[in-house]
Amino acid sequence: MVAERFDWGDGKGLSLAIVRVHQLGEPWVLQNRKGFGGCRSWLGLPEKEGLPENWEADLKPVLSDAEFAEQSAAIKEAM
């Protein structure tokens, strides 16, 4: 049950983050590491290891500005 999962500790509750996703122009290939294994809620990636030199210039939003605004508004409305 959801309540059991989030009703513990001092900071009880559920947090939500709306994230804008962009697609890389080229795949980002990382070498596998022991620290990547197992169950992880959050995984820190090596900074810029294996990224092409101009990776930021090649980012493309997955959703258009209008689609992102519409989806964000729907999520905020539901909350």
The level of helicity is 10-25%
Low-confidence regions: none
Our estimate of the beta-strand percent is 5-15%
Helix count equals: 2
User: What does the overall shape look like?
Assistant: flat
Biggest sheet features: 2 strands, antiparallel
The strand line-up of the biggest sheet is 1-2
What is the structural class? Answer: mainly alpha
Structure in words:
There is one protein chain. With 79 residues, the chain is mostly helical. The protein is 24% helix and 5% strand. The chain contains 2 helices and 2 strands. It has a two-stranded antiparallel ribbon with strand order 1-2. The longest helix has 14 residues, at 65-78. The chain is flat and about 45 Å long. The model has no long low-confidence stretch (mean pLDDT 82).
Summarize the structure.
With 79 residues, the chain is mostly helical. The chain has 2 helices and 2 strands; from the N terminus they run αββα. Strands 1-2 form a two-stranded antiparallel sheet.
Which properties best describe this structure?
flat; 2 helices; 79 residues; 24% helix
How would you summarize the topology of this molecule?
Layout: H1 2-6, E1 22-23, E2 60-61, H2 65-78
Antiparallel strand pairs: 1-2
